[in-house]
C-alpha cells in the first residue's frame, strides 16, 4: 500500500467554490469567521476541522488573498440578491397570512403563552 502523497491539494475547486479537500466547507465559510475576528482555533472547532485543514485553509487565504477576497465578495453579493429575491417574492404571501384571523384553537395557545410570559416577567 502506498502512502498518500503530501503533494495532494488541500484546497480544491468544486461546484461550491474553493473548498477544503475532503469536506463541504468552503474558504468563504472560513472567511465569514475571519471577518468576525474569530481566532483560528475557534474557527477550527466551529467548522469541525482538524489542525491540518484549518492551517491549509488559512495558508491558502494568505497566499491568494486578492483572489479569495474577490470570490468571497461575489458570494456575499449573490447571497444578498437571493435573499432580496425571496423577501420580495414572499412579501405578499406573508402579508396575507398576517391578515388572516387566528384559528380558534390558536386562541387557547396564545392565552397560555401570554400567561406564561406574564409569569416569567414576575419572577
Automatic annotation (TrEMBL):
Origin, by domain of life? Bacteria
**Leader sequence residues:** none
InterPro entries documented for this protein: DUF433 (IPR007367), Homeodomain-like_sf (IPR009057), WH-like_DNA-bd_sf (IPR036388)
Instruction: Quote the protein name from its UniProt record.
Output: DUF433 domain-containing protein
Q: Which organism is it from?
A: Nostoc piscinale CENA21
